Every structure is written in structure tokens, then in C-alpha cells.
Amino acid sequence: MSDHGNAIFDLSHKVIVVTGGNGGIGLGIAKGLARAGASLSIWARNAEKSADAKSEIESLGADVQTLSCDVSSEEDVVRATAETLERYGRIDVGFANAGFGAGQDPLEMSLADWRHVLATNLDGTFLTFRELGRHMASRDGNGKLIAISSISAQSGTPMQVHYAASKAGVEALVRSLAVRLARYDIQVNAVQPGWIVTDATRPATQIEAFSDVVVKRTPARRWGETEEMAGIALYLASDASSFHTGDTIRVDGGYAVF
Q: Among 55, 106, 159, 255, which residue's beta carbon has the most beta carbons within 10 A?
């Protein structure tokens, strides 16, 4: 990358953690970062999916490790952080992407069901950012923390209230950490994807009535692809966003404004 326009997005000296980076939006992000030269540590629970993702990312010429990690477990996150540092010596960027949702009537939802979703989506983001933030602040400062939120953080989702609440909480966490960590030159932001085709959402794309509503409501008139999350990820991970913090950026084909 010889010219300045490309150099500002060069990640060849960056070590980046992507939780849940073995599939869906996380893998789309990881592949985009790999193409920009980053070294990657993928934290996820499914070993088979992680092995496939590792091969796919390595085919792009990137250095990548995969670690077994349940982000809702404090012990797992502390261990994964240590193992990443043992391999690479530093962590420059962290994407808190691991998360899931489950359709359920809130009037029938148990407290255990509620807490199960929040444990991964909200607690997991907190634990990941706490450990990575501690590391970044303890060295020379400078770093990036990016959370993957959802348009459900601002839209009514009657059958996924726990998911929506977790994502709204993630965005509040991002704003607060952005203020706390700014003194260390650490930027903290969130990305709010719209309707993206992933393994989790693919069944919904096959429900004609539902998919038609999504497409008609989206000015781009289609579902998004996971690879289309790579551009915003590259910007937020790179030096190009050095004065951009505490923000939530939507990538939804115009869904939220229509």
C-alpha cells in the first residue's frame, strides 16, 4: 500500500480479535480485515466452524489463530486474552461480535431465558472490552474497540425483547467506555447492521411473506451480505477513525430511515 489513501487503511501491523468470528457477520468482518493485512485471533465456541474459518482466512494470506471461548464466561475471556497475547504480544483492535437471539413471547419468557441471551450479548461484550481495554491502556494506549449491535436496539422487536435490550445495552456501554478510554487514545464504537443474510437469518429469507416485508422496507430493495460489513469494520479498525468515538453507525441499506 504505497499511496496515502490506502496506507491509512493498512492493517498489516495490527493484531485484531473477533469474537464469534467463525461465521456470519463476524467471518465477513474477519475476511475484510485479513485482506487489509491484519493478524487475527478468532474467539468462538464451535471448533469445527472455527477450523473452517481459519482455512478460509488463511487462504487470503493472513496469520490467524482460533481459540475456544464462550464470551459469557469470565474465565474463558481472561484465558483467551492471555493466549492471544502469548501468540502475538499485543492486541490492537477488538470486535465484540459474538451474540445470538431467540424468538420468544416475552409474556412466556423465563428469567433464565432472559439472562441467557444477555449473558452472551451484553455480559460478553463487557468482559471482552474490559480485558482488551485493560491491555491497551496498560501499554502505550492506542486501540480500537468495536461492538456489533443491531437495528433492534432502536426498533420494537416484540418476540426478541431480550435480544433488543441486550443490543441497546451494548450501545450504552460503548458510549460510556468511549469517554472512559479516550484519555488512552482508545476509540470505542458500535456498528448497527440491518437485515444481513447469515446462517441464523437464512431461514427467514425463505419465508416469502417475511422476506418481502424486509425487502420492501429496505430502500436498497434487498438483504445485505456479510461481506458488506467489512468496509465499516476496516474504517473503525484503522487509523482513519482516530478521532471518531462513542458512535453507533448503521449499515442497513436505509431500513431505519424509511
A: 255
